[in-house]
Automatic annotation (TrEMBL):
Protein name according to UniProt: Tautomerase
Organism: Methylocella tundrae
Coiled coil feature spans: none
Any one Gene Ontology molecular-function term assigned to this protein's record: isomerase activity
EC number(s) recorded for this UniProt protein: 5.3.2.-
Length: 71
């Protein structure tokens, strides 16, 4: 009974995108490990941007700096 936990930033993933993630993870477990889709659980946790850090920065600041470097 596989359990997959996906954590994403809470910044606009649509219900359709979330459904695609759930289907995609289920499909991978069926294909690679021959698991039953009916026994496969996928949970998506959305994390507020101020609660997620990368490179020592809150995610929104990290993204701002990365975008500024790319400009």
């Amino acid at each position: 009974m596989p359990f997959v936990n996906i954590k994403i930033a809470r910044d606009g993933a649509t219900p359709e995108q979330k459904a695609a993630l759930i289907q995609g993870m289920t499909d991978v477990l069926v294909k690679v490990l021959n698991k039953s889709p009916n026994g496969t659980f996928v949970v998506i946790d959305e994390v507020d941007l101020e609660n997620w850090g990368v490179g020592g920065l809150p995610l929104d600041e990290f993204r701002r700096r990365a975008a500024a470097k790319g400009s």
